[in-house]
TrEMBL record:
Domain of life per record: Bacteria
Protein name as catalogued: Neutral ceramidase
The Neutral/alkaline non-lysosomal ceramidase N-terminal domain, residue ranges: 91-464, 523-637
Residues that coordinate or bind Zn(2+): 185, 304, 571, 608
Known EC number: 3.5.1.23
GO BP: ceramide catabolic process; long-chain fatty acid biosynthetic process; sphingosine biosynthetic process
Cofactor binding description: Binds 1 zinc ion per subunit.
Catalytic reaction annotation: an N-acylsphing-4-enine + H2O = sphing-4-enine + a fatty acid
Gene3D superfamilies recorded: Neutral/alkaline non-lysosomal ceramidase, C-terminal domain
GO molecular function annotations of the record: metal ion binding; N-acylsphingosine amidohydrolase activity
Bias-annotated ranges (Low complexity): 804-817
UniProt keyword list: Hydrolase, Lipid metabolism, Metal-binding, Sphingolipid metabolism, Zinc
Amino acid sequence: MTLKNLSLILIALTALTGCQSGGRDTIDSSPGGAALGKTELGACALASPLRQLHAGHDRAGDARLQAMMSAQPATAGAALYGSACADSNAFRMGSGVHDMTGPAGDSISAGYEDPTHVLRGIHLRQFARAFALESPCNGERVILAVTETGFLTQGLRQSVLEKIAADPELSAHYAGENIMMSATHTHSGPGGEAHHSAYNLFRLGYDALVHEIYSTALFRAIQQAHRNLEAHPEPGHVRLAVGELLDVNTNRSEPAYANNPQAEREAWLDSAGEEVRVNKRMLQLRFDRADGRSIGLLNWFGVHTTSVGTHEPLISSDNKGLAAISVERMMGTDYLAPDGEDRFVAAFAQSDEGDSSPNLCFRENPYPDISIGCGVDTLESTAASGVKQLARAIELYDAGGVELRGGLRSRLTHVRMDDIEVDDPVVLASLDHPAELDSTIKRTCTAALGFSMAAGAEDNRGPTQEGIACSDIDPAANLAGDIETVLATIAGGATGSGYPALPARTVGTLLGCGLTVGSDVLPALPDVDYGCHAEKPILFPIGTTELISNADLPMQIMTLGQLAIVALPWEVTTTSARRIRATVMAELAEAGIEHAVVAGLSNDFVQYLTTREEYATQQYEGASTHFGPWTLAAVQQSLRPLAISLRDNTDAPDGVPAPQTAPGLPPRLPYLAADALMPGTAYGEVLTDAAEAYTAGDTVQVVFASAHPRNDALDKLNQAYLLAEREQADGQWQVVARERDPELIMRWHASPEAPVAGQLIALRSSQIEALWHLPRNLPSGRYRIRHEGTAVPLLGSDSLGPRTPFSGTSSSFSVSGPMDDCPGYPALF
């Protein structure tokens, strides 16, 4: 993600007409004040033309959502937290943020099951962000942490909890039950950090370096948040704002959504009477000190972070990351501030994004069209999605919101998900599905993935097709459909509507539907049952081994005043989340909880959670629902006693022990550190230099002879490979941008290039290409671009020989400007 410190803000904004000085002290952060909107960058976000990209996709006025958003008198204090919290609005608080960017070369992205999507450079750096809260009225503490990663795996959570347990300062206050960790689900971050092989398979094994970077950064963000809280004993206030956000997300799995009950769908209509098929609600917390100074915001909105897509081989925190870094830029966040000092932290977390896509034009411009997100390319689409979320967050922040009143409480349990019979009469009474989707005994199954999982989602296709289901076993029709698929693939080609699809319907229904215990395909195994997967033709029988995936899954509910956060390890579809919120609110509303948000991708990862009706269609999401058709009902059944334990202030229901795992096989092939140089060059040498003069709005390109970015990926956290600098009056050079900022993109080029990942290729030469999109409001002056790296010239016996730091600097160049009051795209917005 891109982050800018206070000094960068001072330089970038001083040329703007009537701009603020850029420091936090110049910003009106009084409750309800227009703090963010009054900054020049905030005003630019609100006025950005990118907000109009595909405007009118949605209609306002979702009546059900409007009712959910209406502010109600706070009543959660005494009812939920006891008499001491009856009228309490006080919270102690702290925030933390730490760079967690993974290796920017030869890393395979998480999210896309595609080993050829190798990351070679940085669009936006990744960050871990955390908030620590304490309630003086009931003495409880909680941690809410958000990572800009594809997943929050059990192995990563385990490593961070182990670090916390080993730290006397933190372990006195925090353990698993009161710590919530969530991922934004960017698909453009390095993968391979999981302990479970299912999530490392297409990353070609477990990557210990990625795991170390992620766990170190997340722990440090949590540590910063705690120390910031401890350094500020005075209580402040947490404000909640809720609003509708349009033209940002669309349902990518409409056949599945349409299979939900009509009455349920008709409960969610817009002002034109049309179905609202994805959650349009943005919910945001604002953390204010007692004197009104803000230290951060935490935002939830459900949309996939897949704007960048497979079109770009760059690390990126995607649309949510762009929104987060932009807010921190406005507030002058200092990422190197000493622990204990305030730093403004903006976290844009994930909600119910299971079937929610940011690619609003995927129907008109189907994958792999580069304008799938309505922009001219995927980076413009990323900027548009990010600035729309950013602008709405600014509006909610500046509106102030209502104060949270009451205390804090958290309950967590682990449930064995592949062995649950749904027998809760309340949950059973809530089910409303056709008789053909029913079964006398409703139970979860041994984990397995279906054939349509390999099809990918509609906005990022895989090699098979969706809708391959055991409810449709007609060999002749399936064979005809497969022939039609082959012909469409030939006619459309890899760049058209006939994107290559394997003729899998015949094989899927004949083979996959026979994959049950006791069949001729799979012999009976103890404690294994694939026979209840109903419509799902099984492609990958995951089984019960912890080496592959996890079935002992965490479920957590955390309450902050009148807000309940339901943390689940799934990607939760829109209708599944509506039912989950209803289940939780049925138990907590009487205790004063007014809002519930589903925080998906939290504390572990186990792919998708669909309704029974959606599952029956066997679209990508249903085929990726591990534990069969009754998984959602089992989740609702498990959440009810958890909510009741919160309401009644009793212990969390008994569950299975939290799993303790080790990195699964196989390990990633070793990286052979040996950086070659092209003849006659030196590390850091400028191969392509800048021109002598530019105008604000131009793009500067500089290429350096360099080394593999994996050499110093851990050392580069909160540092930079690329720095754009401006000459000061005293001849010193001041940093104005780094590759964490949206305007400065880093691309890594290796020779020889590797088609997948070059772990075993030694003696490769590297080049780092800097592309600086000069902001249109950049002050005139002289600038240069500097590169810093680390080379390993000789192959060491431990695969890492002597390390040689180096740097290189372009020629200085003049920039005439500014040309506008705002940065403009592609610099920012």
